[in-house]
Amino acid sequence: MIKANTMMPVSVSRRRFVQGLAVGGVLATFPHIVRAGSAFNDNAFTGYATELSGKVIDLTIGEALVNFTGVVRKATTINGSIPAPTLRLREGDEVTIRVTNTLSVPSSIHWHGIILPYQMDGVPGMSFRGIMPGETFVYRFTLKQSGTYWYHSHSGFQEMTGMYGALIIEPKAQDVIAADREYVVQLSDWTDEDPHTVFRKLKVQSDLYNFNQPTVQDMLRDITDRGLDAALAKRQMWQQMRMNPTDLADLSAAVLTFLMNGSTPLANWRGLFKRGERVRLRFINGSSNSFFDVRIPELKMTVVQADGQNVHPVTVDEFRFGPGETYDVIVSPQADAYTIFAQSMDRSGYARGTLAVAEGLHAPVPALDPVEWLTMADMMGNMNHGASDSHSHGHSAMAHGNGAEDHSQHGAMAIDHSQHGPAVPYAKASSTVRHASTEYGPSVDMRVDMPRTNLDDPGIGLRNTGRRALTLADLHSLDGIIEPGGPEAEIELHLTGNMERYTWSFDGLEFSKSTPVHMKHNQRIRVILQNDTMMTHPMHLHGMWSDLESDNGAVQVRRHTIPVQPAQRISFLTTPHDVGRWAWHCHLLFHMDAGMFREVVVS
Amino acid sequence: MKTANVTLTLSLLALACTVALSPGVAAQNATEKPPVPTHSGMDHSKMDHGKMDHSKMNHAEQAVDHSQTNPSDMDHSQMDHSGMDHSKMGHAEQAVDHSQMDHSEVDHSKMDHTEMNHSEMTHAEQAVDHSSMDHSTMNHADMQMQGGKAPANARDPHAYSNGYTLTDGPYGMADSRHLKHGVEHPQWSVLGDRLEYNADSEAGELELQAWYGTTYDRLVLKTEAEVSDGKLEDSSTELLWSHAIAAYWDGQLGLRLDQVADGTNRQWLALGVQGLAPYWFEVDVTAYLGTGGRTALSAEAEYELLLTQRLILQARAELTAYGKDDAVNQLGKGLSSLGAGLRLRYEFSRQFAPYVGVEWHNKYGNTADFARLQDASTAETSWVAGVRFWF
């Protein structure tokens, strides 16, 4: 532990800021000194999460000091640690979780991806009042599912200042995923600044943290390499539309330090294994505002679970996930040490950890990939003929010889671009783009008229790496999705925003101006989400599953958080089995707080 | 004559930032080079391939060569492919080469693909080579991705609410809405665009803008002031209500107060627009109505060129014009003055950047005459040094 008053250097070097201090690593090396902290400790425990299990759990929300970059800052913590304790519960159990708030402001805990009564969902002002200062709120619910999930505050920016932890639900029967050893790998992003200030600065200058902007240097390089015409043409559309082709993240390593299990890259979180073991890694993106591209150089990962739901195993080199998403992978490490490398989507920094056979070993840390400009497909969607710099869109309905897609369930289904006929209503998602009347005002800076609908695109920055990256098209629920009947209604919503004004919304209406989306209790509904922005949005619907459909209408995989890429139009089916008011939002915390948030009423 | 001067100055300014400007010229040039086939001008918005039937097509093993095809000037506008069926098409192993195609003037404007059926197409191992296709200069202008008016059949954003609101309806929390997000709290900012020393006039100048409010409605304060020998010489202060009127534009309405050291103070009603024009020009144009039937117009444009991530060249130009002479304040009717400046700043942080620059300023018409009567210069070019900051 560090004493606050001895650890406040006057200035912090850039390297130190980005990579952080090795302090967390000290704690990780001696986990026995880490105990379930009480909120009254001065210093937070970082770099290691204790595990709590059973049917009754006590959690305490409080403040504690942390030092990730060389400066001491105040964090909001659960049981005094970052990450919060890992809760290991059992499917079928009714659990009682008593949460005491010792902060001077209201707080809350949301159980991300858990199906439960709405009063237990933990969204203040919607599902309950929130947990007032000094109050203890008792969450009680029965676990109807198993897998890897997480929990976090849903109040203000508390999630960003440390309130997140893993939630693992063991299956009632034997786990179909066999592993000799397992680790939770929870990624997050920390800022030394007050998140309110960071948010306000984005309202002033939304590209404030982007240090990969197009420059004259880039222009000269393009002229040299490709000629003046090509260099100008490459820029014309962006300039004309006042859009930035490197607008890949609102926050970057300029203001964030990326953490793996609460450890900075220098602190280097470590997981040990024995050669020949099958190791299960439960990856959780618990960050507030960062997409990560995760890989373990020299080691293939077999994805076996997405958002807590088992999937047909698919082996990849890399996967991208946004805040709220989880992926479980199996690895079979043979060498002495490997680096778990999670670069941020904007390539400004990374979180890093090590898998090794012994303490003290480590593997090389790869360089960050170069920044790739967004393509025309990211801006305009399906350009019919395929843009030259994207290899995988526009042909989505066609079977490619080498594709690993399974079309067997819908082989006979007519892939029919016509409007749904009267015979089978809602057989397939409507392909007619219908912009809302409120998308034509100051809140919206672009609309997509020809969205792309294919799911087999790993996204910007992962298309030309030579590495096999996971796509949504790879994911198929293992047990099938058993819901009676087809969709009886269809809802189309567009994800919208204005980067210059830094405002985000559904259909051009920020939450404060919106009305709820009504869903009939137990009715199967199709939801179409079209992304009319140039950023990827991880869309999280509380209280019910989002059963993602392929672009030819087959239900494919069950998720609680679906990333929607720029100019992409996706659809999912959902059956709300629990009445109440539920939150539905982009899980980029600042997008949610800027208005990309809707209320759902199930009745 | 005066107009010509304006144009000339603005052209010079534009020239200064030529590197980043990418006008339509580029698009025209690109289409003239055969190895870079383009689809300029294509508009597929109304294609109708409704009922195409390609079911018996078999391209297997044939070598389709389109390399000499030049469908320029094709007009597909009345094409109707209704009934086409591609379902049994097999492209196995064919070698389609489209690399020399030029579609630059194809017009597909009325085509409709809504009922095409590609369901059983297979491209197994085909070698379709689109690698040298270049869509970068496609003209999709008609699609209108930005702005515009909502069509009559636009979707009602409240259609799914069943009449419920955030406070009314089942399971709502009683009384007022409890959930408030960050964006619902007022935000604020202060920008000191210029805080500088002018070597020629040996005066300090300040241009400052501050705002307080929400995303769409803000109280805006704009101040320009000149300080000489520690004394405030002239200043102009505007207090405006700023309201978002389009994605990139705010309409502004309020008051302007001019404080003049050697002259008479003036008060004005101000009405203007401020925003971001295509190609990233920051623009601020305001019309003023003063006492005694006075009118004035001011326009300001700024452009920023990133030499590196932190070294930034800012070009700015401003224009003022008056509706009638104001002899006391030595301002003449018509175009009164033009100014242009180049400032090179280094952003130690995005919020703090010292700069050096050069500022040119010229008086015109009666304003210039008033200056001559005072034996003052009508044109000046001077070095400036200062800091740009915001918080």
Q: Could you characterize the architecture of this molecule?
A:
The complex is a heterodimer of chains A (about 600) and B (about 400). By secondary structure, chain A is mainly β. In chain A, about 10% of the residues lie in helices and about 30% in strands. Chain A contains 7 helices and 33 strands. In chain A, the strands form 7 sheets. A 6-stranded mixed sheet of chain A has the order 13-12-15-20-17-18. In chain A, strands 24-23-26-31-28-29 form a 6-stranded mixed sheet. Chain A is globular, with a radius of gyration of 23 Å. Chain B is mostly beta strands and about 400 residues long. Helices cover about 10% and strands about 35% of the residues of chain B. A 12-stranded antiparallel beta barrel of chain B has the order 1-2-3-4-5-6-7-8-9-10-11-12. The radius of gyration of chain B is 30 Å and the shape is globular.
Largest interface: A-B, 109 and 92 residues
What is the radius of gyration of chain B computed over CA atoms, rounded to a whole number of angstroms? 30 Å
Q: Helical element count of chain A?
A: 7
User: Which regions of chain A contain 5 or more consecutive residues with pLDDT less than 50?
Assistant: 1-16, 23-41, 385-422
The average pLDDT of chain B is: 74
Average pLDDT reading of chain A: 88
Largest sheet of chain A: 6 strands, mixed
Distance between the termini of chain B: 42 Å
- Range of strand content of chain A: 25-35%
| Tally of alpha and pi helices of chain B | 3
Overall 3D shape of chain A: globular
Structural class of chain A: mainly beta
Instruction: Give the biggest sheet of chain B.
Output: 12 strands, antiparallel, barrel
In terms of quaternary structure, the protein is heterodimer
Q: Helical content of chain A, roughly?
A: under 10%
Strand order of the largest sheet of chain B: 1-2-3-4-5-6-7-8-9-10-11-12
